[in-house]
Every structure is written in C-alpha cells, then in structure tokens.
Write a structure and sequence with these properties.
Pfam families: TniB. The protein contains 14 helices and five strands. With 348 residues, it is an alpha/beta fold. The two termini are 41 Å apart.
C-alpha cells in the first residue's frame, strides 16, 4: 500500500523536513483488491482510507509546459556551473490555477531525486530550496524564509546581515544547486520595500552557486520587469508562460482528451470503466475552462465521493455535484463553436 504523506502542520514544503518528506514519498498507486467480501470491516476501512489518501494527491501529468520547464532548467544548471556571477534563471508566469507551483515543485523533486541517485554520499545535503515570498515582504522577511527552510534559529535581535551570511554559508556547505521562489508577484518594484526585496534576492543569487527559478501570477502585468531593477531581471531570466488548455482545433481537443485519459487511468476505483471520463471530455472542458488545477480537483473530488458512497465509479452526476473554484463556477461555459472561434483568432 502507498505510504501516507501527512506532514505535521509545522513541516510544510517551505521547510527542509517537509520538502524532504514530500520528495521521498511513495507515488506508487495502491493495488485494487477484488475479493472485498473477504475483508473484515477494519480491513475494508483501511483499504478505503489508503485509496482516499491516494486520490487526495493524484499523479502529476507530464504536460508539455512541465517538460519545457524541466528541459530549460537542466540546460541552465549546466550553463551556470562555472558562472561566478550574473547566473541565468527562469521565471514561470501565468494566470492563477494554471499549474505554476506544481511545475516548479515537480521540477525540484525531479532534480533532487536525480542528484541523490547520481551522488549517494553521506552527510547533510540540500540540493533544492523552496521558499515563498510573503505578502508585503521586506528583505529581512525573505532572508528569514530561507533561514526557516533550513531550520536556522534566528530571533528579532539578529539583523539581516547575520541572517543572510548564515543562510549563504549553510547553503554552500550543503551543496544547494536549485532555489525555487514562489509567489514572486508579491514583490512590487514600484514600492521601496519591493525594490529592496528584489535587491536581496539578487544578492542571494550572486552569493550562491545555484540556479534560481521564480514563479508568480502574471509577473509582467504586476511590473516585475519595470524600471532599472526590472530591466536587470529581464536580462537574466527567461520566462515560460503557463496557460489554460485550448480546445479549438482537433489537435487541441485530442491533447485535452489525452490529459483526461491520463488522469482517468490513475484512478483506483472498483467499478470504474475505462474511457468513461474521456467520453465527457467536452463537458469537463466546459466545467474547468481548460484549467489543469480545476480538472484535477473535479476528477479527484468525484473519485473520493464514489468511494465514500460505495458506487466506486464516476458518473456525470458525481461530476456535477463537485463545486469548483469561484473562477471556474462563474465564467460562462465555452461551447465547441466558441472554442474554435477562439483558436482561429489566437485567443487562448
């Protein structure tokens, strides 16, 4: 059975303990047990709980965007090996719900597993750091986020220089190669504190022999590339945009059906028939508007309901019973004709 990943509330991904547990968790799907009548009530409850836990963390689909991000970063990691300054980085940007956080965390997980496989050395090693930019962040707050990931004890009496120097020393010692910084849209270069946070991140990138990856919502629209500091960021970082899936052309519709089929194949339900969801691919597109996060939530939520109600197969009624995010629920559903028109006019 799949090991349950249930980190303590004080061990999120933004701590080395939470990140390590998440990276090393078992992703193998649980095996279906067909002779359920031979299970005791306790065994059946355990079996259901394992599958409920599995569907709460369904597989990540290796979409073309994730493939491009991983390929780009692998290239940058090599290019940056002998750079002593002005290392190149990547910014993943796009609308909310299009998989930015999923993409960079999967990138980090793949890189860390690869490092540990190639270099099974003993001793402390932290090849990947994952932090988020707090709202209304200051340079010290960002430095403390790095320290918190590492578990370094810093109090209010320690100044930003103390925190920064300690963080850089530790990350160099533990062989950090990849720094993932999420929620970068919380930085506004039009404010003094935002400009100072940008400078702090730049200082980290110059002190650490690592490749930096930023992720945020529509970063160009929020002004990340504006002004002198923004131009410097633009000159050092490539950008990859995440977008909703399109549904206009036959190829786009085939890609969407393939995505639905991949998610459907990962289900672990007793009576669900293959291709049931792919037959509803247009309905799923209308419900989710091509948003990968909404689609995953819809299918996983329906799967959980079928386990709880004992039917063990997803029907359209199960799908209709799932409440999605506000954006998906309030945006008018696009018809195939409208989607085709969007495709022809270049609207994603």
């Amino acid at each position: 059975m799949t090991e349950k990943f249930d980190p303590p509330p004080d061990e999120p991904l933004t701590t080395k303990e939470g990140w390590s547990r998440w990276v090393q968790r078992d992703l193998n799907p649980p095996e279906l047990i067909w002779n359920l009548d031979q299970l005791s009530l306790e065994e059946k409850a355990t079996y259901d709980e394992v599958r409920l836990d599995y569907h709460s963390d369904l597989i990540v689909v290796n979409t073309p965007t994730i493939q491009e991000i991983i390929k780009t970063i692998r290239r940058l990691l090599v290019l940056n090996r002998r750079q002593v300054s002005a290392r190149r980085g990547l910014i993943v940007t796009g609308p909310a719900g299009t998989g930015k956080t999923t993409a960079i965390t999967q990138l980090g997980r793949a890189h860390e597993l690869g490092v540990r496989l190639r270099n099974p050395i003993k001793g402390p090693r932290i090849p990947v750091v994952y932090v988020t930019v707090p709202p209304a962040a200051t340079p010290r707050m960002v430095a403390v986020e790095f320290a918190r990931f590492l578990g370094l004890p810093f109090g209010p009496r320690h100044n930003i220089t103390d925190v920064t120097n300690a963080v850089c020393a530790v990350l160099c010692d533990v062989g950090c190669e990849l720094v993932l910084i999420d929620e970068i849209h919380n930085i506004s270069l039009t404010t003094r504190s935002g400009a100072e946070v940008s400078d702090q991140l730049k200082y980290f990138s110059e002190r650490l022999p690592a490749t930096f990856v930023y992720a945020g919502i529509d970063v160009e629209r929020v002004g990340l590339f504006s002004g002198t500091r923004g131009k410097q960021i633009a000159s050092r970082f490539a950008t990859i945009a995440t977008r909703p899936f399109a549904y206009g052309s036959k190829t786009q519709r085939d890609n969407w059906r393939a995505l639905v089929a991949t998610l459907e194949s990962a289900l672990r339900l007793q009576h669900h028939k293959t291709d049931t969801l792919t037959r509803h691919s247009e309905y799923l597109y209308q419900r989710t508007h091509g948003m990968l996060g909404s689609l995953s939530h819809l299918i996983r939520g329906a799967a959980i309901d079928t386990i709880l109600d004992g039917t063990e197969k997803i029907t359209k009624a199960h799908l209709e019973a799932i409440r999605l995010d506000h954006a998906a629920e309030t945006t008018p559903a696009a018809t195939s004709a409208a989607a085709t028109k969007q495709s022809k006019t270049g609207v994603a």
